[in-house]
Design brief:
alpha+beta; Rossmann fold; 3 domains; 6-stranded mixed sheet; 6 helices; 30 strands; rod-shaped
Length: 468
């Protein structure tokens, strides 16, 4: 008699089910084909974040108000000052202080009460200057702002800059500690102190202003001079002393600021003021603030992962890779699929996914990156469910092409019909129900001992139905 077998291969969710029920060879011979899904390995790289903050920028602009220059140049220069204000005001915490070069007999004396007369202060946050309202304070007022026209044979512009800074520096003042301090000298002449009897040399002037500024510990300090380079016309006089001071402070700038071919000097003789303030604008850099993290999202997918097989590597700024260990001293701890604020400085940055907590030197700071490798867990199955009652004596079970014997130790056994059964188990020799459950109903074969099957396995069951 021809034997009639039912062929069954099981593929279990989250597996891909393929059951065709085709009749093969002859009438009454059935075939089902099912294969379990393999372990899925996932790899990702993600990097720490940053943001830009408005840096404090304090700009002092000292404008020549001698009668020889004020009418011809100040109107145009005021427009350029207005351009600076409109540019700076968008992105920076700024104080812009405009003062005349000459302001009475004691215009270089820091205690001179006239140091605030005729002076314009524009601030992004007026609350940072308690006596803000004692100044001219609006951009509109700038365009009608005039200073006393004064004839002077002596010009002590470098000391004037120092006096203005000394009279207005400190917490709550115009010139703040740790600010970006930029001074701009606009003059048709030269500082005359070095050639006067009892005057200071240029070296002494440089040292004096440096010592005064250093008490503020500025991030950068620039002394930008807009002066004649030659005696191009009366009453212009080459501003060589101002230019020397500009070159001196320019040479001490960090390299990233040394992008000015004029070394912080511009030629007033050109009469072209549209580009005069490029050096000022180029001086202002936003502050990049890197973020710090003690939690990290390693996989956004809600699929279950195997915690014991997480591999984390931290990539540092120089490109080196540091393997992180699973420990709570200088390593990481897996805390599950959750939502967590990942940054502790400045805080926030909530993420949802599989999350680890970072400890000690494993914590991440900008510009560090984390390379994470995870995988789905190994799944184990202890049962095969048939749609029809088998003739047990004809059952043949194969796993990956290898025949499995009928045995209650390391083979299969027939359990009969069950309305519901979770075919997934915890693992070898652990028949507690595995998660997530896969519920079936039908005629059950139990796989015992080493006969259980797992990911990427193919199960074939051949049998003759009992009712044939």
């Amino acid at each position: 008699m021809k034997k009639v077998f039912n062929y069954l291969t099981l593929f279990l969710l989250p597996l891909v089910l393929a059951s065709c029920g085709e009749e093969l060879v002859s009438k009454g011979t059935l075939s089902d084909s099912i294969t379990t899904q393999g372990v899925v390995t996932m790899s990702s790289e993600s990097c720490s974040g940053f943001h830009y903050e408005k840096p404090p920028v304090d700009i002092l602009i000292v404008v020549d108000n001698s009668g020889s220059t004020i009418d011809d140049h100040f109107a145009q220069i005021k427009n350029q000052i207005g351009n600076i204000i409109s540019t700076v005001s968008q992105d920076f915490d700024y104080h812009i202080y405009v003062a005349p070069l000459f302001d009475g007999a004691n215009y270089t004396n820091p205690t001179n009460p006239r140091l605030k007369k005729y002076q314009l202060l524009i601030s992004g946050d007026p609350t940072t200057v308690p006596d803000y309202n004692t100044y001219i304070t609006t951009v509109e007022e700038l365009y009608s702002f005039e200073v006393d026209k004064t004839q002077n044979n002596s010009e002590h512009g470098i000391k004037r800059v120092q006096a203005l800074i000394d009279a207005n520096k400190g917490e709550g003042k115009i010139f703040r500690p740790n600010s970006n301090l930029i001074t701009v000298m606009i003059s048709s002449g030269n500082d005359t102190s070095p050639r006067e009897s009892g005057g200071n040399s240029v070296t002494e002037l440089k040292n004096q202003i440096r010592n005064s500024v250093n008490t503020l510990n500025p991030k950068i300090f620039r002394f930008i001079s807009f002066v004649p380079f030659t005696k191009c016309s009366d009453p212009f006089t080459p501003g060589d002393n101002y230019r020397e001071v500009s070159r001196y402070f320019y040479s001490n700038l960090p390299n990233e600021y040394k992008n000015d071919p004029g070394q912080d000097s511009r030629n007033l003789c050109t009469g072209n003021y549209s580009n005069l303030f490029e050096a000022v604008n180029n001086s202002i850099h936003k502050d990049l603030v890197g973020h710090k993290y003690d939690f990290w999202m390693i996989n956004p997918n809600p699929t279950t992962i195997e915690p014991n097989d997480i591999i984390l590597k931290k990539k540092t700024a120089n490109g080196s890779l540091i393997t992180l260990s699973a420990n709570e001293s200088n390593g990481f701890k897996y805390i599950g699929y959750t939502t967590k604020d990942t940054s502790y400085d400045p805080g926030g940055e909530p993420k949802t996914g599989h999350m680890v907590q970072l400890f000690g030197t494993a914590r991440v700071e900008y510009p560090d990156c984390i390379i994470a490798k995870t995988r789905t867990p190994t799944e184990y199955y202890g049962y095969v469910v048939l749609n029809r009652k088998p003739d047990v004596s004809t059952v043949k079970v194969e796993i990956n092409g290898n025949e499995i014997p009928q045995s209650t130790t390391n083979g299969w056994s027939f359990e009969g019909y069950m309305d519901t059964i979770n075919i997934k188990i915890k693992g070898p020799n652990n028949y507690n129900e595995g998660e997530p459950k896969i519920i079936k109903s039908g005629y059950v074969l139990k796989l015992n001992g080493s006969a259980i099957y797992s990911n990427s396995d193919t199960i074939n069951v051949y049998y003759r139905p009992a009712d044939l």
